[in-house]
Design brief:
This protein is α/β, with parallel strands linked by helices. It has ten helices and 15 strands. Strands 7, 8, 9, 10, 11, 12, 13, 14 and 15 form a nine-stranded parallel beta sheet that branches. The longest helix is centred in the last third of the chain and has 17 residues. The structure holds phosphoenolpyruvate and manganese (II) ion (MN).
Length: about 350
């Protein structure tokens, strides 16, 4: 439920409401620009009616409203102001959300030290603000390249130190969460795992930001936000959503997935969480990546995830959708003007957080 304070309520009055919630064992989240909104976290059904009445009777409370949606912490009702997620070490980090636009770029998989270093340097020089790369790869066939695991994580951490880009990488197994947190700045939950509730609970316990891709068995917008709710309910408030396309009805030779651009403004209205777009997995074809990347910005995405490989034709995974370095550089040159039209600026590593 949310407690909407009257205009001009004092800090002390807000404190009273928060203390009352704390005394009952509930958390609170304060937001709102014009008017303070206090979100009560974890209110049990048995307390709801009583609290609605008691808090609603306070002279400095305008009204108390139950959040009716199934996802609560992820909803705009609970927190009207957009969440800004900080990723990476203070002073070197990147912020996601608000008016900045983040670009996460890198290969689908970490294939070798040389491949990752070359890509990291190129994407950083072209203006990317985060480095992506998979060490644990969810592959459809067990005979396909599965990623280099720990070795891949070490290479990613080395690239982060060398090029100053925070790193995002996928975690697939709940048992690996602690380890991946030691190497990565952001944990990616892949599309196949959006409804892996054991994994969602585990990353909810972590204090490393999470990139939650849309997918799973029923990749509806509501289920996506409910998946985010699992993470938020565990106490990890740094969740960024990622639209990465849904399987098409046909013509799979023409595109692997259909990037759902409508989901971006819809989710931004329903939720305060930042949303980025992944036009690489969202199309599966490198030629479609630049136009869909630009379209994503136009519909309000807070950033992009782009697969880049120095030699896409030799990539061990997702070569067909990876941009080569010159194509990535061309795409990046078109983004600042587009960002400006949307009232945004390109995020800069080491500048914003
Ligand atoms: C990836 O980012 O390389 C990946 C496997 O993504 P998705 O989970 O969206 O398929
Ligand atoms: Mn990939």
């Amino acid at each position: 439920m949310i407690i909407i304070m009257k205009h001009g309520s004092s800090e002390e009055e807000k404190g009273h409401v928060i203390d009352r919630l704390t005394a009952l064992g509930y958390g609170s989240n304060v937001s709102g620009v014009e008017q303070t909104v206090i979100g009560a976290i974890g209110v049990l059904d048995r307390d709801r009616e009583g609290l609605l009445e008691q808090l609603g009777a306070l002279p400095y409370v305008e009204r108390v409203v139950p959040v009716l949606k199934r996802y609560k912490l992820a909803s705009r009702e609970f927190q009207p102001t957009p969440t800004i997620v900080k990723v990476g070490k203070a002073g070197q980090g990147v912020t996601i959300g608000g008016d900045s636009l983040v670009v996460m770029a890198g290969p689908c998989s970490v294939e070798s030290r040389e491949q990752l270093m070359e890509t990291a340097q190129a994407v950083r020089d072209a203006g990317a603000t985060m480095l992506r790369g998979g060490a644990y790869k969810p592959r459809t066939s067990p005979y396909e390249f599965q990623g280099y695991g720990m070795e891949g994580l070490e290479i990613l951490a080395e690239a982060r130190e060398r090029f100053g880009l925070p790193v995002v990488t996928e975690v697939m197994d709940p048992h690996d969460v602690e380890t991946v947190c030691r190497y990565a700045d952001m944990l990616q939950i892949g599309a196949r795992n959006m409804q892996n509730y054991t994994l969602l609970r585990e990353v909810g316990r972590a204090r490393t930001p999470v990139l939650l891709k849309r997918g799973g068995m029923y990749p509806t917008i509501e289920n996506w936000l409910l998946a985010a709710e699992y993470i938020l309910a565990g106490g990890n408030t740094d969740v960024v959503l990622c639209e990465r396309g849904l399987p098409p009805y046909g013509d799979t030779n023409l595109r692997r997935n259909v990037l759902d651009l409508t989901a971006i403004p819809i989710v931004k209205e329903l939720s305060h969480l930042p949303v980025i777009a992944d036009p690489s997995h969202g199309t599966g074809k490198s030629a479609l990546v630049p136009p869909l990347a630009r379209a994503s910005i136009t519909v309000g995405a807070d950033g992009l995830m782009i697969e880049v490989h120095p030699q896409p034709e030799r990539a061990l995974s997702d070569g067909a959708q990876s941009l080569d370095i010159p194509a990535f550089e061309r795409l990046m040159r078109t983004l600042p003007a587009l960002a400006a039209v949307e009232g945004r600026r390109m995020a800069g590593a080491g500048v914003t957080a």
